Amino acid sequence: MTHQGVRTFRPPGWSRDATSEDVDTANRILPMHAPTDSSRGLCASALHLINAPAWPCEQYLWAKAVLDAAERRQINE
C-alpha cells in the first residue's frame, strides 16, 4: 500500500512489487508477442521457438497487466 492509499501492483507469483523498470520491459514485450493472425490465434514471437502458444501468451498477459497497473498509477518509480 502506498502512502496515498493506492495499492501497489504485484504480478502473480512475484515476491516484489512491479517497478518502473518492469513498465519499460512490458513496453518492449507487448509488440513482440502479437498474434500471428486472427484465424490461428498463435503468438508470433520467435522467443517461443518451435511451438507457439495460443495468443495471448503468458508474456503478453504479464506485460498487459503491468501496463494496466501503470495506467492506474499502481507502480512506484
How would you characterize this protein structure?
The chain is mainly alpha-helical and 77 residues long. It has 2 helices and no strands. The longest helix has 14 residues. The mean pLDDT is 84.
What's this entry about, in short?
The chain has helices at residues 20-32, 58-71. It has 77 residues and is mostly helical. It is elongated and about 40 Å long.
Quote the distance from N terminus to C terminus: 14 Å
Radius of gyration: 14 Å
Work out the strand percent.
under 5%
Task: Please provide the ordered H/E string of secondary-structure elements.
Answer: HH
- Work out the helix count: 2
Structural class of the secondary elements?
Answer: mainly alpha
Sheet having the most strands: none
Assembly type of the shown chains? single chain
Poorly predicted regions: none
Number of strands: 0
Helix fraction, binned, reads 25-40%
| Average of per-residue pLDDT values | 84
